Amino acid sequence: MVPNRPNISFLSSPSPPLFLVMCCLVLFFSIGTAEGSSDTFGITTLPFFDGFRPLFGDANCAPSMDGRGVSLLLDRFTGAGFISSDMYQHGFYSAKIKLPSNYTAGVVVAFYTSNGDVFEKTHDELDIEFLGNIRGRKWRFQTNVYGNGSTQRGREERYTLWFDPTKNFHRYSILWTPDNVIFYVDEVPIREIKKVAMGGDYPTKPMSLYATIWDASDWATSGGRYKVNYKYAPFVARFTDLSLEGCSVEPTVVKSAAAVEDICFDAVARLRSRTFSGVTSARRTAMRRFRQRYMYYYYCYDSVRYPVPLPECIAFDPIERARYHDTGRLKFGGSHKRQSRHSVDSGPVDYENSYDQADAR
Ligand SMILES: *[C@@H]1O[C@H](CO)[C@@H](O)[C@H](O)[C@H]1NC(C)=O
Ligand SMILES: *[C@@H]1O[C@H](CO)[C@@H](O)[C@H](O)[C@H]1NC(C)=O
């Protein structure tokens, strides 16, 4: 399971309104890939029971009629989850997901890789976590990475999206190679992590894919201010067109890292040759634009939490850094469209806590 997160407290302080510049950029930058057009990756999908099995809350894990997907439900009795039947040493883990709509504060939908069951003390993990939503507000989500048991060093990044993830299925993917990790939303790379920059905290051991829905009332939405309201239950997250590409390996059988590397040589070479493994300059531009427009928390800029920066955070863009507070939070007007609706004299807005104005009944 996803380890407990430290409480991140987000402060806000006055900052110049850059939003005029930023909202103009919005007009020129087009990021989104429309649903259905995201097929240049040539992904091979597999039926649910060919690659996965229910993990918990079996009664709330409902395979779809066509066998290609599954719905995970959260009601007042339980959440639900599934896991890949195999573990993979490097891979492309991917699914189309449609999130529950309406009021979903406190509801977390997680799509992640982990080996916490096998390597308790030195586990690796790559997360995409959707953080619940108040009706009418944008869904937020975060990515995170842990390696070799680095649970004391969260590497959260938080974002909004350029579409409503409750309306249609969109593809979310985690690519993990020996050299880098890339998180994708549809075909837009949103985050890349390089092993060479991250060092010993980089994930190195076989991981399973997990997907879960659960009640995270204590931290998910606005740091726990808004709880799950079971009046709106059941909350249903739909998954379909799942994909697993990589080297299937059983770490309890093949114990040495050298043996795993040997077995996986060909599969990893295939993975590296795939379209989604190459970050073209067009994709790099799309990633930069996504991050400029939709990222609102970045651990690398959180010097309150990390007075000594983590190794991969030492090189940064000073212009980008200037848009963030020392808490890692985007400054008011830092880039987001929605913020441009606030008038200049409404003062700085703490993006996360702007839920204050929502109808949070
Ligand atoms: C949202 O929930 C409320 C209360 O249960 C319900 O009346 C409304 O129809 C729901 N809206 C949608 C779009 O499901
Ligand atoms: C992983 O962590 C352990 C301590 O928990 C350490 O001894 C080992 O060297 C680390 N491995 C890497 C690759 O950094």
Automatic annotation (TrEMBL):
Keywords of the record: Apoplast, Cell wall, Cell wall biogenesis/degradation, Disulfide bond, Glycosidase, Hydrolase, Secreted, Signal, Transferase
Enzyme class: transferase
Domain of life: Eukaryota
Region spans: Disordered: 330-361
Chief place of localization: secreted
Pfam family of the protein (one): Glyco_hydro_16
Gene Ontology cellular component terms for the protein in this record: apoplast
Entry's family note: Belongs to the glycosyl hydrolase 16 family.
Protein name: Xyloglucan endotransglucosylase/hydrolase
Organism annotation: Trapa natans
